[in-house]
């Protein structure tokens, strides 16, 4: 009989440290299902069946593959937008992070929604906030740089215009009016 969606698997019911050990040994060290079963027995969890562990290992492989795809997409994005501004890269990263978080929250390997601990939820929120603040800071820096560049261009234009006006023998009052008109101020 098929397991109901709301029923956690025997692997899901293991203590978190044991699950983390299994995942680390499989993904980082490539342990086989039989080696993992032996380790589970050593840790006092002989009740785990080979088929349950096999399903879990398959789900790990799927998650690992999704992570590889995400990394490949990020690398392709970096190559594609290599000449893009920092602002555009921050936008792309924020969108990618939000998309992956949504996928993570909507489905896990066993069809259950992923439940984040309070710390994991806080860390996720902090990551999104960091990207948002970096984006805001980036926009402020860009805005200030544009303002400085525009002010410098106006000052240079005013200097050229007043120099040319003086060279043509215009009255000092006229030269000053030209300068103020170029600068866009009454100063």
Element-level helix/strand string: HHHHHH
Largest sheet: none
The average pLDDT is 78
Shape: rod-shaped
Q: List low-confidence stretches.
A: none
Radius of gyration: 31 Å
Kindly report how far apart the N and C termini lie: 86 Å
Beta strand %:
under 5%
Structural class: mainly alpha
Topology, number of strands:
0
Q: Work out the helicity level.
A: over 70%
Q: How large is the count of helical segments? A: 6
List the helices and strands and how they pair.
Blueprint (H helix, E strand, L loop, with lengths): L15 H14 L3 H10 L7 H31 L5 H21 L11 H50 L4 H12 L4
Written account of the structure:
The protein is mainly alpha-helical and 187 residues long. The chain has a domain at 8-83. Helices cover 74% and strands 0% of the residues. The protein has six helices and no strands. It has helices spanning 16-29, 33-42, 50-80, 86-106, 118-167, 172-183. Helix 2 (33-42) packs across helix 3. The chain is rod-shaped, with a radius of gyration of 31 Å. The N and C termini lie far apart (86 Å).
Task: Give descriptors for this structure.
187 residues; mainly alpha
Short synopsis of the structure:
The protein has six helices and no strands. It is rod-shaped, with a radius of gyration of 31 Å. It is mainly α.
